[in-house]
Amino acid sequence: MPADATPNPTPTPEAGPTTGPTTGPTTGTTTGHAAAAAALAQVPSEPGAAKPDPIVIADNVKRSFGGLTAVDVEHVEIQRGVITALIGPNGAGKTTFFNLLTGFDQPDSGDWSFNGTSLRKKASHKVARLGMVRTFQLTKVLSKLTVLENMRLGATGQRGESFWAAPLKFLWGGQEDENTVRARELLARFKLDGKEKDFAGSLSGGQRKLLEMARALMVRPELVMLDEPMAGVNPALKQSLLGHVKSLREDGMTVLFVEHDMDMVRDISDWVIVMAQGKVIAEGTPDSIMADERVIDAYLGAHHDVDITEMEREIEQEHLEYGDPMGDSAHQPREEEK
Amino acid sequence: MDIISSALHDAFSPFALSFVLAAIGLNVHFGYTGLLNFGQAAFCAVGAYAMGVSVASFDLPLIVGIFFGLVASALLALVLGVPTLRLRADYLAIATIAAAEIARLVFSTSFKEYFNARDGVSGFTRGFRDINPLPDFNGQFLTFSRNDWWVMTVGWVLVALTCIFLWLLMRSPWGRVLRSIREDEEAVRSLGKNVYSYKMQALVLGGVIGAFGGFIGGLGLASVQPDSFNTDFTFIAFTMLILGGAARILGPVVGAVLFWGVLSGVGSTLARLSSGDNPIIPPDLMGSDQVSNVRFMLAGLALMLLMIYRPQGIFGDRKEIALDAR
Amino acid sequence: MHVPRLRVPLLVSLVVVLIGMLASPSLAATEEEQSNTVQGTLVNTAEDRAPVEGVEITVTSPDGEVFTDTSDDEGKFEIEVPGRGGRVMIELDTETLPDGVSLRNENKSSITRNLNPGQRAVILFPIGPDTRDIATKWDRIPQLVVNGLIFGIILALGALGLSMVFGTTGLTNFAHGELLTLGAMAAYMFNVAMGLPFVLAAVLSVVVGLAVGWAQDRGLWRPLRHRGTGLIAMMIVTIGLQFLLRNLFQYFTSGRTLNYDAYVTPSGVDVGLFSYTYRDAIMAGISAAVIIAVTLALSFTRFGRATRAVADNPALAASTGINVDRVVSGVWIVGTGLAALAGVFLGYTLGVTFNIGQFTLLLLFASVTVGGLGSVWGALIGSLIIGVLIEVSTLVIPAELKNAGALMLLIVILLVRPQGLLGRKERIG
């Protein structure tokens, strides 16, 4: 633990995850936003600013690939109960930072904590069990499972997932029913209830994003980390997706998301962290970030002339990191991202 | 007629049974979990040898030998799994095929006082034959001896029980995690499941089922020989699995029966055509010892064509198998 | 989406060509090689290896027939045994030994041997005291290392092709060993059945390898890539192909071990610490030259750079205008040609047999994994390490287990450094 950190291991009342979100989408009520804004009002707009109630604190997290430094974050805190956006130009290290925080990649050095628990060298599944659940830039729904099975998979603490209990249905059948009820509620909330028997592979890109988000909620997370939730989503669906993201905050969850679209960031986020070349270069409220010259230089300026091959390289990089040997998939354009 | 009867004989024989069980084990590995185990022969061999040596060299009861066989195959799974299950799929394939070859070399050259080199282990079946409850008859009934019938009864009951057990497992949340790992490990990990542990459980389970194949094969042939567990053993079991349909409970069973049936039918048909006074196939083209090569050439071709045109096999659902995994 | 059709006709014609290639020698061979030969030379080490003449040798065939020959003035004997192999007993009549000459081991006047069909068995009856230097373990090391390096560099030809194909396509080719067998078989056909000089036969075999490399990419692998067949499915296809080819080779050779016409037991050159044969030196020299040439070509030619670009990132390579299909095709051609050359050489050292591929496949995997999958230099270093390890390990483990040592190293490498000695860490997932 760094000396200057202000750990707060006791969750605040509104962050209690156990009740779980069961209501319909509560789009755009201002109470959550107002409370969040109030909490962050006193925080200075500068990189590494201390927050009144941080859920995640990261220190000196470094990761390099070969000679290239992908991530070099000195200090960053994520406020509990608010929506924080992580933005930056392509290759800024946002996804790598995500991977590091969630244990999907190992840093060269650094330490970070969640609710005061150090996550350094913690396996990714343990991070998820602690209540820090992520989604992926290239959606990872299990296309050969039905939508409902995808949801059930997300539930934690399943007795039927132990080898010895698995053949004896009376040991886990009841729990499975409870999980199914919960899964159906979430599916209804995300407007996927008509699809529960469909294979997840048959869903559209936007529906997959919704399913992935709904499935993440089955884990009963405290912090939901969304990697480009809007990427590849049909514009008509974007507004409703935004509503869903906001509703997570209303339910007391903390949201950290990576996004490119500045309008969207301004619309839903309470706080914005800007990364460029692996470092946090600015932090602040959406309005202050929009007005920040450095951000406009580093990010907005670059954004308009992003090199296509650069983007492809980033996608490929992602695949290499996940151990994808150059397969036939690499020879063909992927439909879903287009 | 005898072509059909010999095909049926081969399809249900104790020999085929050992492949049925090996292929069921592979189905747990490859069909359900997506693990490429190319060393299933090692699991069968280790099981069979542990059983055989316990009884033949140490005079232990057969049941104790079987227990040691199961423990040995489970240990092999742990030893192989620890280094490779965190790596990409093809590393497991290479490590397991190497392990199978090491096992075969060790069994055929080392500890000769126990393993008897190439001759293998024998003299362990008495305890099993003594409890044969079948009515006494001499000679053969429907091409099988009384002892064969006993091995087959036990073997096929074992196959049925294994299939029921796997059916129960695979419909449970445990099976759901395996099928999800087969498709995308990262997604499963992001939901808080310990992927490594599940892969290890699958490797052990499939290996132990393979060891049962080794037991039945050993009891059926009354001996355990190193060369019957060469790499071809695993590849044939794979062909059966793909033929029947991976990720289907009955896929490997049907695949194995069909494979031996067809292989034997083709073999005896070719033998018939190429023998006698006026053979239809000239002996220059196919001597008696080449029949076996021709039928295995056809088996290889069949595996290629199946994989290309019908990777789901007879029963499988194309959408469901792991073949597009990377 | 347009799915290119599998070139079944092309595949069929490939198989037909293979059959045509192999049919002629095998038929010729079946007629003339319906017998075994037992031969040997009797020399007396007590008299500076002077030939021992007039000694009667009898061979009892599996059918119980007895054949006899008497050693000539060079000490040579040669006995033909009709039939197709089996267990024979070879006896030396000690009564016929000259006075004062005796077998080194009086009890070893008869030897039983299991003969393969068509085998020429060389039988040794040691006469006189043992004059061989009784080498200690450590004195044998230089010789074993040299033997290992020679085997390793031949292995490297095969490993290089395997590694290149993996590097560019991600495919682990379980049929790669059979491509080595193909080289040996082709050389046997050109050399023995068609009577061409061995050097020409070797060159033609490599040409056959290159052609088969092209044909298998165009006829099989490229259509599969374009169909979007997964890598695991393709890997299982290679297993089927391995099965098909190995049984095809066995079909034509009936499991015999054949030798090239030019085959003579080569004489050794002793350089003190170790000895080598000209044959081994030439094979190792050619292997090294070819490997260096291929490696330099990969570094400095346009095609080589394209190959490395595809290996790095196929999508990126394609987007910069590289024709990925052509590169992959080139890799299959070169890889199969290298494999054929390795096979030609192994046909010399191991004999031409259908299971050259089965014997070498796992050693190739071990080499490539130890060196680093996809790395060119790794394939070379890995092969040399595996070659030396196999030979030197015989100091401590029985010779039959020497391959197990190489495979153990493979598993250990996976345990401690899965990317191999020269592999890149990012690749392994």
From TrEMBL, chain A:
Keyword annotations from UniProtKB, A to Z: ATP-binding, Nucleotide-binding, Transport
Pfam families, sorted: ABC_tran, BCA_ABC_TP_C
UniProt keyword annotation of Ubl conjugation present: no
Region of interest called Disordered, as start-end residue ranges on this chain: 1-33, 319-338
Compositional bias of kind Low complexity: 15-33
InterPro entries in UniProt: AAA+_ATPase (IPR003593), ABC_AA/LPS_Transport (IPR051120), ABC_transporter-like_ATP-bd (IPR003439), ABC_transporter-like_CS (IPR017871), BCA_ABC_TP_C (IPR032823), P-loop_NTPase (IPR027417)
Entry-linked SUPFAM superfamilies: P-loop containing nucleoside triphosphate hydrolases
GO molecular function: ATP binding; ATP hydrolysis activity
GO cellular component: plasma membrane
Domain of life: Bacteria
ATP-binding listed as a keyword: yes
ABC transporter domain mapped to chain residues: 56-302
Entries under PANTHER family matching the protein: CONSERVED COMPONENT OF ABC TRANSPORTER FOR NATURAL AMINO ACIDS, CONSERVED COMPONENT OF ABC TRANSPORTER FOR NATURAL AMINO ACIDS-RELATED
The protein's name: ABC transporter ATP-binding protein
Organism field: Nocardioides donggukensis
Automatic annotation (TrEMBL), chain B:
Principal subcellular localization: membrane
GO-annotated cellular components: plasma membrane
GO MF annotations, alphabetized: branched-chain amino acid transmembrane transporter activity
Domain of life of the native organism: Bacteria
Keywords associated with the record: Cell membrane, Membrane, Transmembrane, Transmembrane helix
Pfam families in UniProt: BPD_transp_2
Segments crossing the lipid bilayer: 12-28, 35-56, 62-82, 89-107, 149-170, 202-221, 233-250, 257-273, 293-309
Topology within the bilayer: Multi-pass membrane protein
Protein name (Swiss-Prot/TrEMBL): Branched-chain amino acid ABC transporter permease
Organism from which the protein derives: Nocardioides donggukensis
